[in-house]
Design a protein that fits this description.
This protein has about 80 residues and is an all-alpha fold. It contains one helix and no strands.
């Protein structure tokens, strides 16, 4: 008589373990997908940072050239010189 409840409990535990394994497998797959997305976002951010600093360098160069032209043509106000 005591064997029946033990088997019943074991069956329930085995079923629970199987369900947990299945759920964990799904969680691992979803976590892998999130990791891929985070990695892609990091690469995009790096690309945007590079583009930003490249543009900033170009703007600095334009500013220097404009200042040079203003100096040569004496277009600057005495206050901002």
């Amino acid at each position: 008589m005591s064997k029946e409840p033990d088997n019943l409990v074991l069956d329930i535990l085995r079923t629970m373990r199987s369900e947990i394994r299945s759920d964990m497998s799904e969680v691992k797959q979803r976590l892998s997908a999130v990791e891929v997305q985070v990695s892609a976002m990091g690469q995009q951010l790096a690309g945007l940072s590079t583009a930003f600093y490249s543009s900033k360098g170009e703007m600095d160069e334009f500013r220097r050239r404009l200042e040079r032209v203003e100096r040569r043509l004496e277009l600057r106000d005495s206050e901002s010189a």
